[in-house]
Design goal:
By secondary structure, the protein is an all-alpha fold. The chain has one domain. It has 11 helices and 2 strands, in the order ααββααααααααα. It has a two-stranded antiparallel sheet. The radius of gyration is 21 Å and the shape is globular.
Length: 276
């Protein structure tokens, strides 16, 4: 008497999808896009290093020279946290399910003997690994190009905090937009409106609206002191009402957990119609 094979557990199914998706993500066209946008800060840091090596100060604020550590902090805040991390979350997170629908390959994944939700979680884990493998080396290169060796010991704790913060930001944005991609028909548009519309407005409007953005909690964890004068100071004054670090970490962790849980529910309950 034959017995039916026992389907794998949720975790085992997610691991299988993770192994299948990781190679596809690393060799996809999106990875080329990822390399281009993460290469821009490296190029700027290289230019600053060459200028500095020629005896010219690469950046001054009101006549005062800005050291390499402060320039690195500004690049983390402006380039990575305000642009690269949310953009990657939008383009990768919304595509975890939407790309499979567009390519008509979702049926092959859903007919495997694993839960639908495990497909989303496995692809999300592959997103975390693939983006981290590209973003964090870019940050390391920018750091060692800008920060003199004599300042490494003094700034290394903040640098390590930067790496953890970027990983947490990628996890939070990726989970949020994985939910959007699983629940909505045109998730990319919604994601771009959220990042470049809602978050930008909510952060600038005084009051409690900023609490309903991911950026508010990510920015509050930045370990660098911004310049005391100039445009950066003006921006920082707008964003000064920052919650404690523990609150930010708990909120971001809650965003990841809740978004993934809701995304799993959406994938398992929604009927996906594949275009012919």
């Amino acid at each position: 008497m034959s017995t039916r094979p026992v389907p794998p557990s949720f975790a085992a199914g997610a691991v299988r999808v993770f192994g299948l998706s990781l190679g596809e993500m690393l060799w996809s066209r999106r990875t080329v896009f990822l390399l281009l946008i993460t290469g821009a800060p490296v190029f700027l840091a290289l230019v600053a290093r060459i200028v500095q090596g020629s005896g010219v100060v690469p950046l001054r604020v009101n006549g005062a020279a800005v050291d390499g550590g402060s320039i690195f902090g500004m690049m983390i805040w402006v380039f990575f946290l305000r642009f690269i991390v949310p953009v990657l979350g939008v383009f990768y997170g919304t595509a975890l399910i939407a790309d499979e629908v567009e390519d008509r390959t979702l049926t092959y994944l859903f007919t495997r003997p694993i839960r639908r939700g495990a497909v989303l979680v496995g692809k999300y884990l592959a997103y975390i690994v693939s983006t981290t493998l590209v973003v964090l080396p870019s940050v390391v290169l920018v750091y060692f190009l800008l920060v003199p060796l004599g300042q490494v010991a003094r700034t290394f704790v903040a640098f390590a905090a930067d790496l953890g913060l970027l990983a947490l930001g990628l996890a939070a944005y990726g989970a949020l937009f994985a939910l959007v991609g699983a629940a909505l028909k045109r998730p990319l548009v919604s994601g771009l409106v959220f990042v470049f519309g809602w978050e930008q407005v909510a952060l600038l409007v005084p009051g409690y609206l900023k609490r309903f953005t991911v950026a508010h909690y990510v920015q509050a964890l930045v370990p660098h002191a911004m310049p005391s004068e100039g445009v950066a100071s003006l921006l920082q004054s707008v964003l000064r009402d920052n919650p404690p670090a523990l609150v930010c970490i708990l909120v971001l962790a809650a965003v990841v957990g809740a978004a993934l849980w809701l995304g799993v529910k959406a994938v398992e309950s929604r009927e996906y119609v594949l275009d012919q």
